[in-house]
Amino acid sequence: MAEISVLGAGSWGTALAALLVSNGHHVVLWSYRKEQVEQLQSTHKNESKLPGVTLPDKLQYSSDLKDCALDKDLIVFAVPSKATRQTAENIKPYIRKGQKIITVTKGIEEDTLMTQVDIIEDVLPDTVVGILSGPSHAEEVVIGMPTLVVAGARDRDLAVMTQELFMNENFRVYTSPDVIGIEIGGSLKNVIALAAGMSDGLGFGDNAKAALITRGIREISALAIAMGGQSETLSGLTGMGDLIVTCQSRHSRNRRAGVYMGQGMKMKEAMEKVAMVVEGVYSAKAALALGQKYQVELPIIEEVNRVLFENKDVREAVLSLMTRDKKKEDERLVFE
Predict the structure, then answer these.
(1) What's the confidence (pLDDT) of residue 141?
(2) Radius of gyration for the alpha carbons in the chain, expressed in angstroms and rounded
(3) Cα(84)–Cα(90) distance, integer angstroms
(4) Catalytic residue list contains 97
């Protein structure tokens, strides 16, 4: 039995905490809101995030970061991407050298262009950090639906440890050393999912959705590879797999926000309507900046940014994409 803390009592953090308890581990789920901790302790339900789900009796709850840091075999960061740096700063006084940490959050920090692993390593340099990612909606994981994900870490022992702690008959975990490929795939798919939702909101069909997914993975892959990621990762679970589920699923908050914008809402109004963290909005500017830094063309992500932050009409954004200069599908394919 491992001693594990999960930081962040949103839907994903709660689902993973419940999974780890079911795997036989001692788990503490942390929330910065004492009233949420009290509600979880009294009801064993996180009704606003996972309605209808009763959490395991053995799952414990805390709002004390010190309690969640000391003597833990693994600390799981499941806070929203915009809160990762501050949470790491707050827990820093209690973290021991060599502490193993896994982030399950997807997103890029706008000011620094750092990924989630980068941020934690920046604040907590003497720790060993990895990521757990893949096509995995909390609503399905918490009720035991089959799910496949990837544990990514430059440290092989951490990747294997994560695999062993999380894996069960319903939750299959692979390992990978390609942290940057996993992180870029997980972060940028949220931006593409906003575009997919906009397409749905406009009433477009399967043709448009298929185009967004295939051209979207092309943009994601080009940037990830330019940053040192591997093409195999982007054709796998944390690339194409994660993009498909996020663009298609009714559970996807990024797609849902895009639907509302396609129906005429502005970005802030759509986010309020979703009432959950829409990570794609926070990663969109950073993704575009990374494209400029690495000289990678990202036309879909560029148009999403214009809709989000320049009030461009969604239909005009579609027209801009459809009337771009004529191109080959892939410059690597050459006519003989």
Answers:
(1) 97
(2) 20
(3) 10
(4) no
In this predicted structure, what is the pLDDT of residue 336? 85
- N- to C-terminal Cα distance for the chain? 61
Work out the burial of residue 3: count CB atoms within 10 Å of its CB; fewer than 13 is exposed, 13-18 middle, 19 or more buried: middle
- Return the sign of the alpha-carbon dihedral for residues 289, 82, 128, 170: negative
Residue with tokens 């986010």: 271
Question: Residue 53 carries which DSSP code?
Answer: P
Asked if residue 174 lies in contact with residue 151, where contact means CB atoms within 8 angstroms, the answer is yes
CB atoms within 10 A of CB 115: 29
Rounded to an integer, what distance in angstroms lies between the CA atom of residue 244 and that of residue 224?
Answer: 17
DSSP-derived secondary structure for 234-282: HTSIIIIIHHHHHHH-TT-HHHHHHHHHHTT--HHHHHHHHTS--HHHH
Give the number of other CB atoms < 10 A from CB of residue 230: 18
Structure token digits, residue 168: 């069960």
Residue 279 has pLDDT above 90, yes or no: no
| Nearest CA among 303, 249, 232, 283 for reference residue 136 | 249
- Comparing CA positions, the residue from 273, 242, 241 lying closest to residue 259 is 273
Residue 331 predicted with pLDDT over 90:
no
pLDDT in tens, 230-250: 999 999 999 999 999 999 998
> Catalytic residue among 189, 209, 285, 327, which?
189
Residue 224's pLDDT is what? 97
Lookup: tokens for 158? 């951490």
Angle, CA 279 vertex, CA 299 and CA 135 arms, to 5°: 90
Ranges of beta strands (E only) in 64-144 are 74-77, 100-103, 128-133
